[in-house]
Amino acid sequence: MKQIILTMLLLVAMTAGAQTNSDNKVYFSPDTNVTYRLFKTQNMHIFIKLNTSNGTMKLVQFSTSNTRDMMQADLSDIELATGAEAKNGRF
User: Fold this and answer.
1) Are 83 and 68 in contact (CB under 8 A)?
2) What span, in angstroms and rounded, lies between the C-alpha atoms of 45 and 17?
3) 58 — phi, psi (to 5°)?
4) Which residues of the chain carry a pLDDT beneath 50?
5) 3-state SS of 28-77?
């Protein structure tokens, strides 16, 4: 009987750590005429920067302690809109 109770407590303890309190809310600026939007990721120092006029995306690494740790890298450098079609707030 003790072994069953111990096993049950161990299983409850293992599954309790797997539950997370994630914030799935999406926050947007009410201004639709912005050039860039930042989207948060699961990593608190990394964001996705969307160019709202042509649809290109960059990965942005942010750091509060060291400027050497900051960087931008292309995620998608394909322009989905060009010329007159490329207007702020399109994407």
Assistant:
1) no
2) 23
3) -130, 150
4) none
5) CCCCCCCCEEEEECCCCCEEEEEECCCCCEEEEECCCCCHHHCEEEEEEC
Q: What is the DSSP letter of 10?
A: H
- C-alpha distances out from residue 18 to 8, 13, 15, 21, 28, Å: 16, 9, 5, 10, 29
Tell me which H or E stretch contains 83: none
Phi, psi dihedral angles at 72 (to 5 degrees): -135, 140
What strands, in cross-sheet order, belong to the sheet with 46-51?
36-40, 46-51, 57-61, 71-76
pLDDT by residue (tens digit) across 32-42?
788 999 998 99
The phi and psi torsions of 86 (rounded to 5 degrees) equal -80, 95
